[in-house]
Amino acid sequence: MTITAAEYSLYLFFFSWCWLSVAVSAFTDVFVFAKERRDILTATEEFRLNPSTRAAVYSSFYLGWLFGDPFFGWIADKWGRHPSVYIATALGLIFQASCALAVGPYSLFSLRLFAGVCMGGADLVAYVHCIELSGVQQRATSGSVMQCFFACGLCLAASFAVVFPDWRQLYFVAALPTALFIISWWWIPESPKWLANQLRSGKLKGGEKLQHSKAETADQHRALLHVTEEAGQVVGDGGSEDEKGHRNQTENGDKEFTYSMLLKDSDTSQLLMTVCVVWLIGGFVYYGITLSAGSISKEIHLNMFLMGLVEIPAYVLSRYLADTAGRKSSYISLTLLAAFFCLVSWSYPRKGGRLLFALVGKIFVSSCS
């Protein structure tokens, strides 16, 4: 399945916009649950949330994100990347906008929880879908661009909070960027890798696929059913005898891996645990700095905007260091630098300097991710 440069740019834009909409949905909570302020109307004041209740509702979106990733990842493997990511974003838009109608902390907790499940799942599936539509040499670029759009989402959330200081209005407006991604349904194709896996496992028949294809999409489907470099090397039912022999050899040589097989292998399970711990630490520092935008100094809007702005050069820096100095050494160095500047920010007496050191720490921790 050959994708032109224009098509790749279009796909990358829409998937990156999906990440932007996830960031806007997630980080509006910084303003919604800010402590007593005169410039914005917060849910903390309206519902008179005590510290423990505020912390519980504040974290509900990220709790949902924790369950949304594996849930929609499983759905994406069963139903395909294309329907999964759009179902997740459509449901996320509904729950995000419905948060504006919350009547109390319990309803707000529930709505934010389900919004986190959906938007977190959309975040994962959109990334996988984009990478599988990208060529091997384009994947690093795809990841970097999507991360830059995520950083822009923080800036956009801060901008929305300036224009819409009421938390109910802010929740509703924060759902609107998701609508732009949903309309891309008609331009984004299914993942060729997922289709190839379905063909290889016998769950999708090549002849049936071509038989029900429209004239304008028949060539795309026919390309998926023949040998490609990145789509699993699957051949359609109408191929030659040599092609059918190659297909049978490919099918017999491939195995369907499961999560239990992943855990049974000691080397792979150790590597998996190491990566999980690394992501846990990086995420803890990243979201800890970002969500503290309201407490580092009084300028909450400026803080959040700067938090997103400094991430953009961080992602460019991380890609350069990974290609020149190597992944492992770059990660260790950036992590130590992030830890150092975060500790300095925590112990610095003045809030102005505290913000500066926090931003530098944010650059390094963003580079790690």
How is this structure best summarized?
The protein is mainly α and 369 residues long. It has 21 helices and no strands.
Q: What are the salient characteristics of this protein?
A:
globular; mainly alpha; 369 residues
Characterization of this structure:
The two termini are 31 Å apart. Helix 5 runs antiparallel to helix 6, helix 5 (60-79) packs across helix 7 and helix 6 packs antiparallel against helix 7 (105-133). The model is unreliable at 207-218 and 226-254 (pLDDT under 50). 40% of the residues are buried. It contains 21 helices and no strands. Helices cover 77% and strands 0% of the residues. The chain is globular and about 60 Å long. It is mainly alpha-helical and 369 residues long.
Describe the main β-sheet briefly: none
What form results from the Cα inertia axes?
A: globular
Strand tally is: 0
Question: What distance lies between the first and last C-alpha atoms, to the nearest angstrom?
Answer: 31 Å
Structural class from helices and strands? Answer: mainly alpha
Helix content: over 70%
> So how many helices?
21
What gyration radius follows from the Cα positions, in whole Å?
23 Å
Amount of beta strand: under 5%
Spans of at least 5 consecutive residues whose pLDDT stays below 50 are 207-218, 226-254
Determine the oligomeric state from the structure.
single chain
